Amino acid sequence: xxxxRARVRSVAALAAVAALVLTGCSGGPGKDxxxxxxxxxAEQNLxxxxxxxxxxTDISKYPLEIGVEMAISQTMETLVTLDKExxxxxxxxxSWEWTDDTTLTFTLRDDVTFSDGAPLTAADVKGSIERxxxxxxxxxxxxxxxxxxxxxxxxxxxxxxSVSSGTLLGVLSxxxxxxxxxxxxxxxxxxxxxYWALPIGTGPFVIKDYVANDRFAFxxxxxxxxxxxxxxxxxMKQVTxxxxxxxxxxxxxxxxxxxxxxxxxxxxxxMSNVTFTQEDSLNYYFLWFDNKxxxxxxxxxxxxxxxxxxxxxxxxxxxxxxxxxxxxxxPVAAFGCVExxxxxxxxxxxxxxxxxxxxxxxxxxxxDAIYSNANGAGFANMMQAFxxxxxxxxxxxxxxxxxxxxxxxxFSTVNDDGTHGWNIDVQPNQTITGDADYTIYxxxxxxxxxxxxxxxEFDEITMQAQRSTDPDERLALYQKAIDIMRxxxxxxxxxxxxxxxxxxxxxKGLEIPANEFIDFRTVYLTK
Length: 527
Hints:
Blueprint: H1 15-18, E1 21-22, E2 45-49, H2 66-72, E3 80-82, E4 88-90, E5 93-100, E6 103-108, H3 122-135, H4 140-143, E7 146-153, E8 156-161, H5 168-172, H6 190-197, E9 205-211, E10 215-220, E11 233-237, H7 242-250, E12 256-258, H8 265-269, E13 274-289, H9 299-307, H10 311-319, E14 323-325, H11 349-358, E15 365-372, H12 379-392, E16 395-402, H13 404-412, E17 424-430, H14 436-444, H15 456-467, H16 471-488, E18 491-504, E19 507-508, E20 510-511, E21 524-525
Parallel strand pairs: 2-11, 2-12, 15-16, 15-17
Antiparallel strand pairs: 1-20, 3-4, 5-6, 6-8, 7-8, 9-10, 10-11, 12-18, 13-17, 13-18, 14-18, 19-21
Helix pairs in contact: 9-11, 14-15, 15-16
C-alpha cells in the first residue's frame, strides 16, 4: 500500500488515490475474455450494493451522510466538482471569478435543464444555497462566511462573504442544486420538503423509487444536458449482511459491491468473472465523545478510553490491509491533516487505569455508545473489540446498534442541558474536499456544537487557516490546531478505510474515486 506519510505535504498527492478505472479483463459467464461489446440497451440494468446505507434522502438536510450523497449525486449536481488533485472544475457553472476578496461570481451553463425540462437558472442556485444555510446542519460552519447570494441574471450568481476564504469553492462542491420554487428558507414548507425528499435534479439519472433502509431505484434521464448515461437503470440496494452481498455478486443479482471485508477478500479474488480493486481513500472511522457528559467531560477519562484500545491489533485482526490506524484527526492524504507533534495516544492499559483513578473513577464508570448497523464491513466486530478492551480497564460501555434513520435521529438529539442523546458515537466519515478545513474546522469549532467541545484558541487558529491562501501558512496553522486537539482529546480517530469494490468483469467504465461517490453515467455492461 502506498505510504501515506509521503503525501501529507501536498493536496496534489490525492491524484495517487483519487480514481482507478476498472476495465475488467473478462466477459460474463461463457463469454470471450476480451468482450467489449455492450449489451443491448434493454439489458443495461445494474445493481450496486454500496458500503453504506442511507438515513434519508434530503441532501440539504443530510449533506454529509456518505450513503445519501452516493445516491443523490446520481440525480442532482453541483456548481463545481473537485478533480483528482482536489482542485475545482466546472460542472453547472462554466466559470467563476473572485472579483474581490469577498465576492465570488459564477457564470452558469446556459444549456442545463432539470429532468422535467425546466431550465437551470441563477434563482435555483440562490434558493438551494440558502436552503442549505437555513438547515443549520453539518455544513453550517463552513457556509457561515456567506452573507448574501445574489441572482444577478438568469445565468449569473454572486456570493458575498464576510471574510476572504481559501476553501469556499471546495465547500460548494458539496451543495447540490435543486429547483428554486421548492427551495425556500422556511423549512416547514411541505411542498419543499416533499421535493427534496425525492428531488428532480439536473443529473444523468432520475429517481423512480425509494424504500427506506432497502433501495434506491434510478432510470436514465433521457433529457440530460450532457452525455447521457449508458445504463438504462441503476439500483442501489442496501444489504447489511456481508455474506448476502457476496452471494448477490456471485449469482448475478448485483454487478458491483463495495466494502469487501478483510477475511473475505481472498474468496472474492478467487471468484470467476469478478474483478477486485482496492485503493487508499479519504474515508475513515472516528469515535466522538459527548464532551458535556458527566464522565466524558473530563479529558483524563477520554484519554484513558483511547489508551485502553490496542488499535493496531484490532486493525490487523479485523481489517488487515483494508484499513490503517489513523495518524491524525483526519486522513493524512488530505492537505493539512498533519500528525500531532507529540504523536497519537499510545496503547497503555496501565496508564488508562491511572488516568481513571486520577479522575475519581477507580471503581469504573458506565456509558453508552451508538452506531449504525448499516455501516461498513466489520463494524460490529470492531465495536465488540472496543467494549472488551474498555471492560479490561473498568469501563462498561453499553452498545446501541441502530438502523440508519434511528441512529441519525439519536445522533442529532441535543438535550436541554447541552448533553447529547448519546454518550459515545462511532461512525464513518470523510475528508471529502481533500482539505483539513472540512474536518478540523467544520466538526470541532465552538459554533459547530457537534460534540460539546469548544476551545477558543483552536477556533482562532482554524479560522485563520480557512481564510489564508498561503499553503505553508495553512500547514503551520493546522499543526498548531491538531496539537491542541491531541491535548484536549475531544475524539478518537480510529482507522482510515481503504476503498475496495468487487465488480462483475463485464462492468466497464467504472471509476472509483477517493470519496467513493461513483459517477455511474460512464458505466455500462458488456456481453
